[in-house]
Design a protein that fits this description.
The chain is mainly alpha-helical. The protein contains four helices and no strands. The longest helix is centred in the middle third of the chain and has 77 residues, at 55-131.
């Protein structure tokens, strides 16, 4: 048995191995001695602790906290519903504003067309005035 351990020890990698030399002799000649302590351990509390809370009091406290949490959840739900309604209102306003912006763009394009037509009309009026001159101004080349 000792030879197989040595063989295993030789075959095993040399990483942090624990030496078991002398373990067999220790196990064969083992002695057990009872050690007694002269000091006694005092388990009584050195500081007076608060009186223990009763189970009923703890349950009542938990119920009160649960009611508070429930009230907070209800209040948060109410605020969430109000926020959703406000978001819907704002989305409606936003859609209306987007329609107005599109309409303004269309009106700006139409205004540009009107300006072009007015310019063209002014040119036609000037040409018409030029053509309506009396014949003698045309003959003499006066305005």
């Amino acid at each position: 048995m000792a030879q197989t351990r040595k063989n295993k020890k030789l075959l095993a990698p040399a990483q942090d191995t624990l030496s078991l030399d002398g373990l067999e002799s220790f196990l064969e000649n083992a002695n057990m001695q009872a050690v007694t302590q002269d000091e006694t351990i005092d388990f009584s509390p050195s500081v007076t602790a608060e009186p223990p809370l009763s189970e009923t009091r703890l349950i009542l406290d938990l119920l009160a906290q649960l009611e508070n949490v429930n009230d907070l959840v209800l209040e948060t739900g109410y605020q969430l519903a109000q926020t959703r309604e406000r978001v819907r209102e704002l989305e409606g306003l936003l859609m209306g504003e987007e329609l107005l912006v599109e309409r303004i763009k269309d009106l700006e394009a139409e205004a540009q067309k009107v300006l072009e037509l007015e310019t063209w009309l002014d040119a036609l009026r000037a040409e018409n005035e030029h053509l309506k001159r009396p014949w003698w101004k045309k003959l003499l080349g006066l305005n």
